[in-house]
Amino acid sequence: MTDPTPPAPDRLPGRLPARFPGWQVAWAAFVVAVFGWGVGFYGPPIFLQAVQASRGWPVSLVSAAVTCHFLFGAVVVADLARLHRRFGLVAVTRAGALATALGMLGWALAAEPWQLFAATLVSGAGWAATGAAAINAIVSPWFSRRRPAALSLAYNGASIGGVVFSPLWVALIAGIGFAGAAGLVGLAMVATLWLLAGRHFRDGPAALGLHPDGDAAPAPVPPAAPRLRLRGDRRFRSLALASSLGLFAQIGLIAHLFSLLTPVLGAGGAGVLAGLATAFAILGRSLLGWLLPAAADRRLVAAGNYGLQAAGSLALLAAGGEAVPLLVLGVALFGLGLGNTTSLPPLIAQQDFAAAETGRVVALVTACSQAAYAFAPLAFGALRDLLPPAPGLPGGSAPALYALAAAVQLAALLVLLLSRRAGASSAARSAPPPADRAAGRIPHGPASGRTPAPGC
After folding, report:
1. TM segments (predicted)?
2. Are residues 269 and 124 both part of a single domain?
């Protein structure tokens, strides 16, 4: 007698993959993040030194080129969602890898300042196509319930990129020159991302007949909502402001932390602590990604993350430049929140905005925060130059930098706490009909007792 039960969807021969490929996509996004951050984020500070040493140009001029790199990247990121819709993930990712490689060569071969600034436009565009908003666009279509874990996995590539590429750039530039290093790394990046994009980013889950998280049945789609005018939306403005403040403090402190710790711990000890911060960043992001409850208020979680980093900055301040245990504690606390500062805004956007708006929100929040942190190293450096040196520490007042970082982090915390009430009221005005929520079309929002915002 023939078994009337049809085969499970994931076993239909020649039609559907035997295993849910979403996690393979997340691992591919991890590799994109390794190259994206390793070249586009951690590379420019090292390029600054290489260009200044070889050309003899003023440090201020080359520093302005680094800022230009990040600022133009912010302009491209703001339009990234539209580029993905028009050209697709494969083409944009491949173009980003090519732009990064060509931009790096431009940095290495620039004979005049205008050529250097032209190269920053190309490298900045490449960074935009392989950075935070791009990773979210790659991973998010495949996951809903498991999105925190999937994004945590993918964004950990950013930390690995810093661990691998920071020393690799130094070694390659010393061994084969800046142009040789740029050519070798650029070729590896283009070849790797070209293949990965073609293999894993060509089809989304819908094209394969699959559903997010590998679920057997599709989630009902809520009725289409009118396109949000984000400029006047308090949820968007508060998220963009908090993310900008948090990353401004984070990048500003990271840029100067090594030189502030070196007089106390030596170069070796400062390097170990820098590595400790990265290790704790991976740990903190992984724990949050796997343990974050589905119903958790993600704005509250992000506020706690900024509070954790502020506690780290205050521990560094309390160390007085001498108490090594407090220095270690401060770096560990600061590091625990390091990765989540990048990965939490997309998760907040998933909870606060409709699915159709999430990509645009993430891209614009990323653009705003990137435009803000582009000036952070300059601002923190100016503070070091303006204030008298602290005893035993060169180039400015370390306590003032730690205090500034803590103050900005606490400001980000306050913005998120205050925005929870605004977000709830905005959500109440745009909430879907009760029948939609009852049918399971809209996942529950923050466990605050208030009406949840439309999610995805």
Report:
1. 25-47, 59-80, 87-110, 116-139, 151-170, 176-197, 239-258, 264-288, 300-320, 326-349, 361-380, 400-419
2. no
